[in-house]
Amino acid sequence: MTVLRRDGLPDRVPWAPLIDGYYMSSRPPGTDILDAFREIEADIFERHVWTYRLNMNMPREPGAVERFMTDGEVTFEEEGVIVTLKMETHPKGRLLTRTYEIPGRTLKETGLFTEQSPYLPFPVEPLIKDVEDMQAYEYVVKRRRFEPNYDAFAQEDKRIGDEGIATDSGLTSPIQELLQHLIGIEAFYTTFYTDHLPELESLMDVMHESNLRAYEVMAMSPAEVVIDYENTSTSFISPTIHRQYVSPCINDYADLLHEKDKILLTHRCGTLKALVDAIRDERDDGVVDISPEPTGDLPLWEAREAWRDKVVLGGFDATFLTSWTPEQNRDYAREILEKSKGTDRLILGSADAVPKTAQVENLKAVGAFVKEWAASG
């Protein structure tokens, strides 16, 4: 928190890789995520500990999740929207289907969980396929409700204690959500952005207003840190479009959280060099899970120099953690610290989620190194 609050110099550089379901899927069944952090000598910076519930995700009654896991299907109604979730076997894994039934129309999307991605599904069928679907989804979004889930967050944060913190997950800016999940990159640009921009902007406005209601719940929560998982990358958004449609949303989320002394970090795991100026001008407090080449294009020391008013976290690409040796990872950690020329605003971590194939010894090597570096003065 000394680094995140920019409250003086830390006693050492933190080591906080993104440990979540990807990496945990490689650990023995039943492994506690806190023990996974301890095993690799990391500071616990737990992700996705939500302070809120979304009414469209799952029925409210007790046991709904367990019933879904057992039966593979659940149907419920919220605000006049009938939601159905169905999980079924597929030759390549497990297929999740979600439908929203509203008066006169049904929206459907599917995603595939695979051995390579057991935590998040690959999009198979997008939810929004034509203009009428956009209008129907507006109907759904206007009926989203965000309910506090503060007790669950507080319990996990207490369980972590002085070893670190739990972090909340904020909602993504509308254009990024549409590009990555609801429409898809090709259709977004070739059809919707080109031929139906007014309708697209109308939907994004509705989604942003709904997102703000969620951030209001987060602002009142016990979470000190909220992370917005933008997955920013010039591989699918230009600097001009980013400034027009992403930056204003980030600024609104930051302003709302800052009113309650919360910290907003943004997860930007792609190619960022062409967006350095745009990101510099945004009002979030830091950028996390920054990736150098080959996955990204921005070394951590360059990010720290470019964004002098922001905290930066990341540096270790998935390829480093899976294929390099422990000695190579230690050497790279040393390179980051030497080239950064300072330890304020700096947290070593993974560039995006630690993959399931990451070598434990590589992760441990970095954790041990940062402690040795601090001890050496």
Q: Taking all residues together, what is the mean pLDDT?
A: 96
Beta fraction of the residues?
Answer: 15-25%
Structural Rg = 21 Å
Instruction: Tell the overall outline.
Output: globular
User: How many domains make up the coordinates?
Assistant: 2
Write structural notes for this entry.
With 377 residues, the protein is α/β, with parallel strands linked by helices. The chain has 2 domains: 2-55 and 144-375, TIM Barrel; 56-128. Helix content is 41%, strand content 21%. It is built from 16 helices and 15 strands. A 6-stranded parallel β-sheet has the order 10-11-12-13-14-15. It has a 5-stranded antiparallel β-sheet with strand order 3-4-5-6-7, with helices on one face. Strands 1-9 form a two-stranded parallel ribbon. Strand 13, helix 13 (300-306) and strand 14 form a beta-alpha-beta unit. Helix 5 (131-141) runs parallel beside helix 9 (197-219), helix 13 (300-306) packs parallel to helix 15 and helix 15 packs across helix 16 (360-375). It is globular. The mean pLDDT is 96.
Give the topology, please.
Layout: H1 2-5, H2 21-24, H3 33-39, E1 44-46, E2 52-54, H4 64-71, E3 73-78, E4 81-90, E5 93-102, E6 105-113, E7 122-125, H5 131-141, E8 146-148, H6 150-160, E9 164-166, E10 168-170, H7 174-182, H8 185-195, H9 197-219, E11 225-229, H10 239-245, H11 247-258, E12 263-267, H12 276-280, E13 286-290, H13 300-306, E14 311-316, H14 318-323, H15 326-340, E15 346-350, H16 360-375
Helix pairs in contact: 5-9, 9-11, 13-15, 15-16
